Amino acid sequence: MKRILLTGGATGGHLFPGVALARALAEYEIATPVFLEHGKAMEKRVLEGTGIERVSAPWGEQGGRISAFTRIPAACRLLKKERIDAVVALGALPGVAPGIAAWLQGKPLFVLEQNRVIGLANWLLSFAARKVFLSFPLEKSSRSLRSRSAVLGCPLRSGFKPAPLPQGDRAQLLIFGGSQGASEVNNALLEAAGHFQQPQRFRVHHVCGPNNQHGITEAWKKAGIEARVSPFLEDPAREMIAASLVLGRSGGSTLAELTAIGRPALLWPYPLHRDQHQVKNARYLEQNGAAHIVTTDDSRQVAGHIEDLLRDTRKLDEMADCSRALGYPHAANRIAEMIGVHLGIEPAGISAKSTANSTHHSIGNEEVMA
Question: Among the CATH numbers 3.30.40.10, 3.40.50.2000, 3.20.20.370, 3.40.190.10, which is that of 3-156+330-369?
């Protein structure tokens, strides 16, 4: 069986889609997935126990943009040593050297882009890629990139599938800040907590990030709101399904999870990225009726906006429908199938399932069967 190397950044936004795609590649006997590790703690946490083969990068942890190119000879040797037949770049600079090495050796290169703005590493690799798999349509792209891209969604962990909004007397607000800027979201919500007019009408699950729990439970209790506080999401699919409204950042993989389930969102984009990709991700959902963007630092206005949404069940239902319409819950299968096509492999058992779940999606000026 062919061997595919998956490589990219060591954040959950890169690793979780990579694991989902790796499992689809293995399950449908398209290829044996191999993860390239860089010695990061997050890699160990996510990859341990998955059963996916791992190899260590033949270079140290540290390195900037220049090292992405100086590592190319070592990456070429690695592909030969591990008998790699193709490379999937998951995003960020660690994918550049293996991706260019694949191109130099005539091996197929595939790129996963989770955001509305293509990152620098993925943009560089896109010129050599057989296919660039997009989670959402890019805000801007060249004719050349459009011809080699397909909007098939972001590969997701198990459990992320369409679900109706929960019913009950009290709505549930799920809050999480993501891997960057959790403290800013935490502090803003705690300031807003004291301004809710009817705190007994909803519950809160506040995912505050590691080492941030101090004082948060007490603040919600003081505000008269029933709240559960967690350092991280143990089962994100279950918690999103249980939520009536989700408030959080707008990274590409997070929005892919929200839309796969179909959850209305109040989005607080991380504002300091150079390319503003979270802002543009959030704007795409807002323009399509699936989310609202927090545009104020006034804690009273934030509290009022949250309560207005939670009270308006009709509006939440409409937003949930719009969110679900943007989702790609079968993205891992569809991407695995297309990789199989490029490798000349008939995926075992995927065709009927994929065809049953397929829909047409517009990609730039072309129409593609996802």
Answer: 3.40.50.2000
